[in-house]
Design brief:
binds uridine-5'-diphosphate-4-deoxy-4-fluoro-alpha-D-galactose; 2 domains; single chain; globular; alpha/beta
Amino acid sequence: MGIPVKMPPFKTVFVTGGAGYIGSHTVLELVEAGYEVIAVDNFTNCVCGTEGQAASLKRVEEITGKKITFYQCDLLDKPRLAEIFKKHKIDCVIHFAAMKAVGESMILPLLYYKNNLIGTINLLEVMKENNCLQLLFSSSCTIYGNPDHLPINEKHSIGNVTNVYGRTKYIIEEMLVDLSKAEPEWNIISLRYFNPVGAHHSGRMGEDPTKAFTNIMPYIGSVAIGRKPYLTVFGDDYNTPDGTGVRDYIHVMDLASGHVAAMAKLAASHLKIKAYNLGTGRGVTVLELVRTFEKVTKTKVPVQMLPRREGDIESMFADATLACEELGWTAERSLETMCEDYWRWQIANPNGYRETDTADVAAKLAAIKESHGECSCQSTVNGVH
Ligand code: UFG
């Protein structure tokens, strides 16, 4: 459970990868919880807005009415990272920044090892130089590999990873364990995410993939909006209720609140190092996700069955009891809410964070309504419903 310590609550949080999908939603949640945020990002996985600002964080400022301090910074540029870090009095770091496309990681392994591992080492060294030893690390359920049992709890073995991206997460977790053994004054939580989907309910923030390699929800969205003719489903012969792969989809805002809960834990206890699963505990098949999306958004998502995707796991879902017991956190939002919030973001921002022509949005919405009937989730973009 960790040794309770009396230390002042954290005030200022340094967030790497703060402009990315999970990063930006977490920044929003942190700001709303009263933290001051210093965010850095190198724009590998997100959109640079006007004047070098992060487009996603501009939206956070718009929603919260609070200013986010942001720097464009690559963690491989250690002198710049050190310079930024020194400018502020940082209490805790949340480390999201990483290259994250599974397929790409198999083609460009050195790039992934360089960015994810060296970037993390640079960050840890800079933290140590500044006597900041409080860290939340963004890990992934992918480090469990093919599960021996379901649901997966934190005691499940790790390391049997099927892709390079996941291996970088696994190696970093192992490195953090070694660091904690050598220097027990570090206080570290690894958060193992299951499959984050959805968007902030305002429709102003969401996932905006910058690469062709994406996860299932953006694919479903692009079929529903008419950019792609059908969703390819990878495998219908798994030992699951309908033969398609099972995952634990978690709303990105639940994931974000998991970080706020974990930070409170770090501030209250000296854990040395501990890992927590962040998932809902519910396994959902690909077809169940598609049907739910169709029902909630009143759209059609035709599917085409293809053979299994190489490296895919049959079923994966969390036992999130530990996070509930020790962090006081549980995922609250339903699969319906995940789909509804994703869709609200998608139709209001067909070009993601890139500038959107209001007339274009109005035309898209009209076309969707005409072909599929009225959507249950209302959206407003610059006054367009
Ligand atoms: N799927 C399809 N068609 C698609 C895309 C995905 O059928 O076009 C299926 C997959 O086969 C799988 C499920 O949808 O059964 C989810 O696939 P994703 O690609 O969305 O997610 P993965 O579970 O494969 O992996 C994701 C991230 C990893 C991360 C992992 C756990 O890509 O980075 O979740 O967090 F490590």
